[in-house]
Design goal:
CATH topology of the domain at 68-171 and 256-300: Rossmann fold
Radius of gyration: 21 Å
Helix content: 25-40%
Number of helices: 15
Strand content: 15-25%
CATH superfamily of the domain at 68-171 and 256-300: HypD, alpha/beta domain 2
Number of strands: 11
């Protein structure tokens, strides 16, 4: 049920919802948002309740914490067992379960695991605590990767010999391409991520849209922004068009932030990567280039990422691929809750299971 009481743009929201109903061509059409922030906003504001019958919103693999493989958590846990190691990460990563427990559990056991807001905080720590080996778990999509790239360059510039990066960064468009090739879910249009698009630009989706004849609309994060993108996609579907629309032009340009792209390409190279619950996707991950290998945590601690099976009954992978909605998982709200998560989609503040649990199942 939509709750827009007191929302300053409620009239515009109602107007857009009315327009969507008026232009909807009928039948069933599935749109997928590829951004965890969109997932949370759609659930929080009850936007599904404003849409015509047959128009389905699916949550895609747009939550970086959710798609980080268990093997990365296991590697971080292994590193934390070193007496001189300090593992640093963002808050959402603390509760993500690996096959040998979470970072939160390791911290409670006495491991030196620290939560930070900026990777640059780690560089200051490393300068002040030279006896420690600092390891940053680098997760995220194109939005946060340039910041990590700059931190790698700054580490080299400062000559810090006790800073390492456990790189698990991912790229959005290869995942979208995988979903279209799989054809397990007939996706009728993509609500493209706003933050990522600020970096890569709206034109980055052109090849995908042309190849698969799928409409794409870049959206901001307010209810008006999301409904504007949905309205655009519905109109394209009705007119049998497949184009890329920029419905977030106040922040997103055609080519994006070219300097951020340059810095990312300077430090990282594209590699095949594992997405938790989904599998390996070609050219979807980022690894440090050979000239920065001295800062690679896996190289420094002589570790490999060993794939592990997901917990029995966990269907986060199917949720991330749009094959089912969170409540359709047998563990949802029973064995798997935000207080006791089984899968990563219930951990992250941007996870679809967490969003459903908090806003759509009360």
């Amino acid at each position: 049920m939509s709750d827009l009481s007191g929302f300053r743009d409620s009239d515009r929201v109602k107007g857009l919802a009315k327009r969507i109903h008026e232009i909807y061509p009928g039948g069933e059409h599935k749109l997928m948002e590829v951004c965890g922030t969109h997932t949370m906003a759609i659930a929080r504001y009850g936007l599904r309740s404003l849409l015509p019958e047959g128009l389905v919103l699916l949550s895609g693999p747009g939550c970086p914490v959710c798609v980080t493989p268990s093997a990365v958590i296991d590697a971080a846990v292994k590193i934390s067992e070193q007496p001189d190691a300090a593992v640093v990460t963002f808050g959402d990563m603390m509760s993500v379960p690996g096959s040998h427990g979470s970072l939160e559990l390791r911290k409670s056991e006495g491991a030196d695991i620290r939560v930070l807001y900026s990777v640059y905080d780690m560089l200051e720590m490393a300068q002040n605590e030279t006896e420690k080996q600092f390891v940053f778990i680098s997760v995220g999509f194109e939005t946060t990767t340039p910041g990590t790239a700059l931190a790698v360059l700054e580490t080299k510039k400062r000559g810090l010999g006790n800073v390492y990066f456990l790189a698990a960064n991912r790229l959005v468009i290869p995942a979208m391409d995988m979903l279209m090739r799989a054809e397990e879910v007939r996706i009728g249009g993509f609500i493209c991520p706003g933050h990522v698009s600020v970096i890569i630009g709206s034109d980055a989706y052109r090849e995908l849209s042309d190849q698969y004849r799928v409409p794409c609309a870049v959206a901001g994060f307010e209810p008006v922004d999301i409904l504007l993108a949905i309205s655009d996609l519905v109109q394209q579907i009705g007119e049998e068009r497949s184009e890329v629309s920029n419905c977030y032009s106040r922040a997103v340009t055609l080519k994006g932030n070219t300097e951020a792209q340059r810095v990312t390409d300077l430090v990282f190279e594209r590699v095949e990567a594992e997405w938790r619950g989904i599998g390996r996707i070609p050219s979807s991950g980022l690894a440090l280039r050979p000239e920065f290998r001295e800062f690679d945590a896996l190289h420094r601690f002589e570790l490999e990422l060993v794939p592990v099976a997901e917990p029995p009954g966990c269907r986060c992978g199917d949720v991330l691929k749009g094959l089912l909605l969170p409540p359709q998982c047998g563990l949802f709200g029973k064995r798997c809750t935000p207080q006791h998560p089984v899968g990563p989609c219930m951990v992250s503040s941007e996870g679809s299971c967490s969003a459903y649990f908090k806003y759509e199942c009360t």
